[in-house]
Amino acid sequence: MQNGTVEEVKKIVTVLNEAEVPSEDIVEVVVSPPFVFLPLVKSLLRSDFQVAAQNCWIRKGGAFTGEISAEMLVNLGIPWVILGHSERRSLLAESNEFVGDKVAYALSQGLKVIACVGETLEQRESGSTMAVVAAQTKAIAEKVSSWDNIVLAYEPVWAIGTGKVATPAQAQEVHCELRKWLHDNAGDEVAASTRIIYGGSVNGANCKELATQLDVDGFLVGGASLKPEFIDIIKSATVKKSA
C-alpha cells in the first residue's frame, strides 16, 4: 500500500513494538511498508517481527529505472517480498507468466515470497474463480523447484478495500481447492506444508471467524494493518491452537 509519512510509520512501529502478541512459534508476523521506509522500519521494529518489500524486479538489476531488484532487498537484509499483488496485475498488467518469473528469480536470490492470486468480481460471477486462481498458481509452479519459501495469498480482488469480505465459507472453499491443486500438481508434502493466507478486507471484527477455517493459515492485511486492530488480527492466530 502506498501510505505513510516518516512520522506515521514510526507511530505504527511503536504500536507494534509495544503490543503483546503470541510468540513466533505460534504466529509469524511480517510487515510490508513502501520501499522508501524499509530501512527505517527494519531498524526500529522488534526482532520477532520481519519485514517484506511490496514488490521487486523480475531479474538482475540493471537499466530498469525506478525498479528495485531482489539483490538490493537481500543487501538491505529484507527477508520477504510480496509478488503478484492484484493491484500490480490489474494496474500494471503483470501477467501470470511475469509473476511466475518474478517469484522464481526472488527465490533464487534467497528471498521468501508471498505470492498473490485471486479473481475479479466478474470472474467470480461467471463461475471461473478456480480456473483463474489455478492458472495463476500454475504459472508459479512451472517456474519453481521448491515451495519451501513460498506463502500463497488468496486475495479476491472484489474484496480488497471494498468492505466486501469473502465469507469464511467462500474463503475456505477456495483455499481448500488451492490445496487440492497443490496436492495434485506439486505433491502431498507441498500441499500439507504450504501456508495459504487470506487477504481481502480482513479486520479485527471478522478475523477470528476466518481464522477458524481449516485451510486458512493466516492473513495478508491491508488497511487494518495501519490501525491498532492489527494486533487483534495477529492474536487470531491462537484460534486454531485452542480449538
Keywords:
243 residues, alpha/beta, six-stranded parallel sheet, 6 strands, 11% strand, triose-phosphate isomerase activity, isomerase, Triosephosphate isomerase, cytosolic, Triosephosphate_isomerase
How would you summarize this macromolecular structure in one to three sentences?
The chain is built from twelve helices and six strands. The chain has 243 residues and is α/β, with parallel strands linked by helices. It has a six-stranded parallel beta sheet with strand order 1-2-3-4-5-6.
What does this structure look like?
By secondary structure, the chain is α/β, with parallel strands linked by helices. The protein has helices at 6-18, 38-44, 70-76, 86-91, 96-108, 121-125, 129-141, 168-186, 188-193, 207-211, 230-235, 238-242, and strands spanning 29-31, 49-53, 80-83, 112-117, 150-154, 196-198. Helix 3 (70-76) links the parallel strand 2 and strand 3 (80-83). It is globular, with a radius of gyration of 17 Å. It starts with 5 loop residues before the first helix and ends with a helix. The mean pLDDT is 95. Pathway: Carbohydrate biosynthesis.
